Every structure is written in structure tokens, then in C-alpha cells.
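#structure-requests
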Amino acid sequence: MAVFNTFNPLNQDYKKHLPGTGRLVGIDLGTKRIGIAVTDENRMLSSPKFIINRTRLKNDFTKIHEFMDEYSVTAIVLGYPIQLDDSDNEMTKVSENFAKDLDEYFGGIMPIFLFEERLTSFEAKNIDRSGISKRKGKHIDDIAASLILQHFIES
């Protein structure tokens, strides 16, 4: 299996499974939308790219796969939602199952890193309200994905 929980203190060897080169894709998973972001070639910056309006799991995976092929992505960073007190919430298991299904879709060859996403949606909303984003009030899932990814590459 190629899913690594970066939040689990018993599994801190995940970094040895991170490919040395290639872009990373960031995913902010929601029940209605999936935000997608990508790093630059040097993994210095992440950029929001687009939002998938969820339909069927296979369709969602196909769109993610097409994006990854286009950008030559070598690993996935999936937001891992937990409470401020480190406990699980209703989306924690959803994210874990999504990661397992995505891993199966890729045949276990694409590393998937579950990365703690606390407050990224809050940060994304603040970016949207601040005027940095030109969307004002539109969906911010790709901005949240970019924040998850940026925090991952900085860690």
C-alpha cells in the first residue's frame, strides 16, 4: 500500500517514500467538491489549479489522473482533517477511505500522503476575503488544496 499518514507519530518514515523529483499534487477533499493544487518543479511553491465538482468516484479519479499526467506529478498530498484537539471528525474516515480507493485506482504505485489540514479552509476563506483572490465568495477548495500542499513542502 502506498498511503502514508504523516500525522501518525508511529509512521514518521514516510519521507523516505517521497520521490526526490517531480511535482506534487495537493487535494482538498470535500463532500461536494475537490480542490486541486500543484507544486512547481522545484517544490518551492504550490498553486491552486481547479475544482472538481464531485460526481462518481471513478469520474473524480479520472479527472485527477488526467491532471497528474499533464503535470507529471510523482506523489499526492491529500488533506487529512482532524480536530484542533487531534481527535477525528466526520471527514477523517472519508479521507482515509478516499486515499485507499485512490491508491487502489493507481495500483499502489503512486505515493499518497495524508497531511494534516487544520484551519486551511479558514485560511483560504481569509485569503478570499482579503482581496488577494479575485473570486470573492466563490468556492475556495483549490486555495485550501494549495495551502495544504504548501504546508507539506515546508514541513
